[in-house]
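URGENT: need a sanity check before tomorrow's submission.

F., can you look over the Anchored repeat-type ABC transporter ATP-binding subunit record below? I want to be sure the sequence and structure line up before it goes out.
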Amino acid sequence: MSQPSPLLKLQAVDAGYPGRSVLSGVNFTLEAGEFAGLIGANGAGKTTLFRTVLGLIKPLSGEVTIAGKPPKTVRSGIGYVPQKHLFAWDFPITIAETVMTGRTHLMGMWRRAGKEDWKQVFTALERVGLTDLRNRPIAELSGGQRQRVLLARALSTAPSLLLLDEPFTGVDAPTQTMLIELYRSLVAEGMTILMSTHDMYSAATSCSRIIGLRGGVDLDAPADHFSVEALHRWLLGADLAAPANLASCEVSA
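Structure tokens as predicted:
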């Protein structure tokens, strides 16, 4: 009996833009129910990797598959939470209408939202604790509420893979704790999460696995192999690719 395909697989992926290669020889897989932290300095290729997984840019070479299929054929199976500043928060729509925009690529530009669409929207709002605020204009939201709106928007298609781009930037501690608990519950239900972050504490204490980028994958091991200090040292250029090298810098988080 054949083994099921990994949920996400990148095989010998080179990616970038015309005249500029950003990622080289990227290889890793994520299984259903993994929560991986994607770390790296600015310019290391985290955003390029996300765009490649989303099918927004085509690999220069190599292959990306989601459950064995090309990303563009399974867009409804991928939820994406961008950084808050990339969203137009002054647009005059409500929370519920914003979450519905996550289903636009399923409905098409001209079909009106139906009963099933609204059911998925309200389910997503309930998951993030925003049902009571569904009619509030998004311009009136706090930073933590905005992050939850973007998460609900991503969850509105019931994805199997969730990409989180710096989800804790500008979020207060209670909201961050709530989001981490929600991410863990989603993973327990079988969802796979890949989260880019500059917050090494969150990466070390929340994720089950750490993937570090330096042009390619330079670090890939279970999160419990790393202390917060070790991850900071790696960001500064230390060679910590082998977990055995970490013994001298292990400290409690």
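My own read: The helical segments are 46-53, 95-100, 104-107, 115-127, 143-155, 173-188, 200-206, 228-235. The two ends are 43 Å apart (CA to CA). If you see anything odd, call me.
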